[in-house]
Design brief:
The structure is a homotetramer.
Chain A lengths: L1 H24 L6 H7 L4 H8 L2 H24 L7 H18 L1 H10 L5 H28 L7 H17 L1 H7 L2 H17 L4
Helix pairs in contact in A: 1-2, 1-4, 4-7, 5-7, 5-8, 5-10, 6-8, 7-8, 8-9, 8-10
The structure holds a DNA duplex.
Chain lengths: 200, 200, 200, 200
DNA sequence: AATGAATGAGAATTCATTCAT
DNA sequence: GATGAATGAATTCTCATTCAT
């Protein structure tokens, strides 16, 4: 068990250190030596655990996907008991909190998706779609309720996701002017106008 | 002048070729040799014109900024004669056309901004801000007119920019479901709802 | 004894697996990890039995030498009762059968003798000489009998060995045109002409 | 021209040095660093000329093939004016001189043919066949003349080639007992007996 | 203006081997 | 006897850049 534990720890350590370096300097700018050094580990030892540099990106990818996954899972049920508008507002707030917590991860994949194989890219995209679908189902519900009026809920849902991600990838601007709370308040307002609007 | 002209041509050729390669495989994955080879040019000759690999990114950066710049310039005046709503819709349509034309460039900078110095990053950011300001001024005008109701025009303006850029950086999804025309129609509708909404 | 037996089995297993890998991909291209893996054995366990990679080559070497040795032993006595010509033909046939059976081993040492220490190389060479001497003694006997006429029986003996080994190291060519039986017939004929010839 | 010349020199230098190292320690045991160092050249400079380690083996391979090729060419014509027996003896003597001069090369390819691609191996094999064919045509001529009696000239021709190559790959033994002249004399005698013998 | 040659630094990865448990 | 973890040294190869001509 001690063995087992140590092995997992090492792998965890590698993942954690590598993720930090990847985020800080980018995947291509990070060398395996850098990662090993920061782990106080011989390069060969690192290879004992991971197989290749790309495998590390892989692991980080899986971890990132799982983060999103659990966000979706955690919030699915809680929303059923609220009204459409409350639910949407709640989901936006929670997702923005999530983006805030994992902003580095969010931005990272906006930038480095290029380095994934197409298979992995699909996985990431699919997970992002399922986040969008969480919002989409809320919008559909609101339409049934007569609370929302929308020509196309898919675009609207993706809009919501992107406007939340924007808190991460435009942080250089937004942080200068708003707190997360303010940003949440404004965006929620705008999005609610968007979905309940008398468009066109 | 012949000299001068040739020199400029060479530089232009390098920029063009490099941009294509950068876009296709990323800045770090593109080697100076690759660029030189595609220009049918010796590496040393290339260095005669550009100084460093990073300088090429620089040039591409300046070029990209100028593209945005001219977009702003071209559209500023045309908008004055329209009504607030017409002007906004027109600006969105024009910007989406621009994003569609330069989608590779747009996506590139979402991904590779990391490789810029902070000074250059500032320049890029500033230019993006000035695009946002184009929209912001339209929003401000609409508020004065009583056509729009908005608590914060800055966020709303950035929303518009990001939702347009999204046509480029989520193309893997959007292209599957919408033409540019459809996308333009839907987003314009949603944005107009957003800005003319009863804020919360 | 159970212990002892198991230990010998393990060693035998290593030798067998290693020999197969050496033959297939060459000594240098075979890694200790490969061998251990194919033995379903930990690398360290393997080292518990063998000491070094080179020692494995050693073992294989000894095994190869012993193969030749037993060939010589097995055939020495049987030959006494035949006539010189019969004996020579018989010895050639038997040796060709041996080469055919151990063609991989034969070829291997033609190729990898380089990787032996000079001491080991001597051992291999000596054993090859003793194979040659088997033939040489037959030739000497034939000369005494007046059946063969030869200026130098050493060269003639080595010729025989090499022409038989050739069945292994030129198999890429010979197999296309001849069966072992045909090859045996032709070579026996040629060699008999050689040794009974009215030369020069 | 100076340029051109230097470039060829460098390549020639690399080939020469590499060949020597390959012969001395084997292809796999020779590192690119070793080669570069012996050339007083930076590793990257070496790669400026050759592309890959394997390409060097390639070059050496081509060179070796060309050596054999020119041996065949040089001797083809000279043989026409002699009698069959004279011609065969002459060809053997010349080929043995060739093997003696290029014994390292000869032995090398007996050992390292494994490291060639199958395409390259074919090329080497084909060239060896054409050497054999030189002898085979002499044997065929001798049969027409009624000078030689042979059931299969292909095997006989390959025998000659192999018995000559043997001077190189059994040098550890043969050099102890014979000079090249003695070896030539004995083998010529044996081969002539072989080909003019009363086949069985 | 143009180029072939050159280079130091560094990339990812593999290897035979050892050691503590 | 067995094993997972560890390592120093070495591998092939690439890169951005410079320099003499």
């Amino acid at each position: 068990m001690g063995r087992r534990k140590k092995s997992i720890d090492r792998l965890g350590q590698i993942l954690k250190v590598a993720a930090a370096l990847f985020i800080k300097t980018g995947y291509l700018n990070t060398s395996v030596r850098d990662i090993a050094a920061k782990c106080h580990m011989n390069v060969a030892t690192l290879y004992h655990y991971v197989g290749s540099k790309y495998k590390i990106l892989n692991l980080f990818h899986e971890y990132s996907v799982s983060l999103l996954e659990s966000f979706v899972e955690e919030n699915k049920l809680a929303l059923d008991e609220m009204s459409s508008e409350e639910a949407l507002a709640y989901a936006i707030r929670r997702y923005l909190e999530w983006v805030d917590e994992y902003q580095d991860v969010t931005v990272f994949w906006y930038q480095e998706a290029r380095n994934l194989t197409s298979v992995q890219f699909e996985a990431l995209a699919m997970q992002e779609e399922s986040t969008a679908q969480l919002f989409q189902s809320l919008l559909d519900r609101g339409i049934k309720d007569g609370k929302f009026r929308l020509a196309d809920t898919r675009i609207a849902a993706h809009n919501i996701v992107v406007l939340c991600d924007m808190w991460a990838f435009r942080r250089w601007l937004l942080r200068r002017h708003y707190t997360l709370q303010e940003y949440t308040k404004y965006q929620t307002g705008l999005i609610l106008s968007q979905v309940s609007g008398r468009a066109h």
